Structure formats: C-alpha cells, structure tokens
Amino acid sequence: QVQLVESGGGLAQAGGSLRLSCAASGHTFRIYAMAWFRQAPGKDREFVGRESWSGSSTYYADSVKGRFTISRDDHKPTGYLYLSSLKPEDTAVYYCAAARSSYGSGRDPAGYDYWGQGIQVTVSS
C-alpha cells in the first residue's frame, strides 16, 4: 500500500505563492505518476497537473498553466506543487494522487489509486 501525506496549505493573498508537499511512504515503487487535483465545495475534483515519477512527462490544466509548477524528489520520495500568481478562484481543497500505471495516470481522477488527505488553500482578494 502507498500512503500520501500532504502539507503546506493555508491562506495566501491574491498574487502570492504557496508550496504544497506530498510525502509518499509504503510501497512507493508502485508509483508511476503523481498528480494534483482540487475540489471546491459542491464540485467535482478538478485536474490541476501531473508528472510521471521519472519526470519524463508533465502537463497541466489550462487554468493553472504558467502559474503552477510540479516537481519531485525521488529520493525522499516527495512531490511538490508550487502555486504562484494565485487568484481567489484557486481556493479549494487540494489533493495529491498517485497512479500505478501510465494507463491510469491521465486527467481523470478515477484513474488514480492512492490519495492524500486533502489540504485547504484559501486565496484572499
């Protein structure tokens, strides 16, 4: 089994920055890719970005492209989401997720096998 523990959320001002961390433990050798999703109250999980564990394939949702950056540390192992140029509409609970295969590591949350607990990001105007 894989466990994902998130940290780094909180309150930021519009235009500010935050860093989210996703520490993986357990059978981390099972991880093919790590992704980030976000969910506002009453809404479905929204894809944010994804990176293969090897770093060979990375892409983002159009809504965050150019503002958010995914990185990783394969030795810890930990994934990171850097959020910059924040907007109030970025306010949501952010989740990291991991997939065991390339087949299930796209933009659909149903394709992911392991999930972090979620962490609140609130952006004030």
The overall pLDDT average reads 94
What distance separates the N and C termini?
Answer: 40 Å
Low-confidence runs of at least 5 consecutive residues: none
The percentage of residues in β strands lies in over 45%
The topology string of helices and strands comes to EEEEEEEEEEE
- Major sheet attributes: 7 strands, mixed
User: How many beta-strand runs?
Assistant: 11
* Backbone CA Rg: 13 Å
What share of the residues lie within helices? under 10%
Number of helices: 0
Class based on secondary structure composition and strand pairing: mainly beta
Form type: globular
- Give the oligomeric state: single chain
Report on this model:
With 125 residues, this protein is mainly β. It has strands at residues 2-7, 10-13, 18-26, 33-39, 46-52, 58-60, 68-73, 78-83, 92-99, 114-115, 119-124. Strands 2, 4, 5, 6, 9, 10 and 11 form a 7-stranded mixed beta sheet that branches. The chain is globular. It starts with a strand and ends with a strand.
Q: How are the secondary structure elements laid out?
A:
Blueprint: E1 2-7, E2 10-13, E3 18-26, E4 33-39, E5 46-52, E6 58-60, E7 68-73, E8 78-83, E9 92-99, E10 114-115, E11 119-124
Parallel strand pairs: 2-11
Antiparallel strand pairs: 1-3, 3-8, 4-5, 4-9, 5-6, 7-8, 9-10, 9-11
Question: Main attributes?
Answer:
125 residues; 51% strand; globular; mainly beta; four-stranded antiparallel β-sheet; seven-stranded mixed β-sheet; single chain; 11 strands
Quick gist of this model?
This protein has 125 residues and is mainly beta.
